[in-house]
């Protein structure tokens, strides 16, 4: 694991455990024993050139609370996982790029509604995609959060064994 990734994971655990802005309830924070992650997977940390759509298309993505959020559809990219080629659609939001996805481990290893990633745009339709930085939406930790629901085109039949896993522990479900 890279030192930067290890530090980010420790910092996130501290934020969840102690910060008043944490997605966890005070009761959850008292019981919180850390998030669970896959080991660093260098094969799922790569640069990719996306096929940009350049058509100015926007989509409304439903959220867990029912209100839709508007995203610009940027383009699509392909990559290999376990010797299988898969593709995902990238979206653009006010804060940058957004990559929601559901993988084959959803419900058993990962959060059933999917995980998120904010890919780094490197210019010329090229992105740094590091699935080791994928995270669960706040909806995974308690009620009251509004999270975009992964669109159908970003539901994979392969497991992405990198990033955050399904939360476990006494603190889960106490929100």
Describe this structure in words.
With 175 residues, this protein is α+β, with helices and mostly antiparallel strands. It has 2 domains: 1-35, no CATH class; 42-154, no CATH class. The protein is built from 2 helices and 9 strands. The strands form 2 sheets. Strands 2, 3, 4, 5, 6 and 7 form a 6-stranded antiparallel β-sheet that branches. It starts with a helix and ends in a 45-residue tail after the last strand.
Write the layout of secondary structure elements.
Layout: H1 3-18, H2 26-31, E1 45-49, E2 51-52, E3 58-61, E4 69-81, E5 84-93, E6 96-101, E7 115-117, E8 120-123, E9 126-130
Shape: globular
Low-confidence stretches: none
> SSE order, as H and E?
HHEEEEEEEEE
Total beta strands = 9
Could you give a short account of the major beta sheet?
Answer: 6 strands, antiparallel
Number of helices: 2
In short:
The protein has helices at 3-18, 26-31; strands at 45-49, 51-52, 58-61, 69-81, 84-93, 96-101, 115-117, 120-123, 126-130. The chain is an alpha+beta fold and 175 residues long. The protein folds into 2 domains: 1-35, no CATH class; 42-154, no CATH class.
């Amino acid at each position: 694991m890279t030192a930067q990734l290890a530090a980010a994971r420790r910092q996130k655990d501290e934020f969840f455990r102690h910060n008043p802005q944490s997605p966890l309830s005070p009761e959850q924070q008292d019981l919180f024993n850390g998030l669970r992650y896959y080991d660093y997977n260098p094969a799922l940390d790569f640069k990719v050139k996306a096929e940009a759509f350049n058509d100015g298309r926007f989509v409304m993505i439903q959220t867990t609370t029912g209100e839709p959020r508007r995203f610009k559809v940027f383009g699509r990219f392909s990559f290999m996982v376990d010797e299988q080629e898969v593709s995902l659609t990238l979206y653009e939001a006010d804060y940058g790029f957004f990559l929601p996805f559901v993988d084959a481990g959803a419900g058993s290893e990962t959060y059933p509604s999917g995980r998120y990633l904010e890919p780094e745009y490197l210019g010329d339709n090229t992105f740094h995609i590091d699935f080791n930085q994928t995270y669960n939406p706040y909806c995974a930790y308690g009620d009251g959060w509004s999270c975009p629901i992964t669109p159908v085109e970003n539901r994979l039949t392969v497991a992405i064994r990198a990033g955050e896993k399904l939360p476990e522990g006494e603190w889960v479900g106490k929100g």
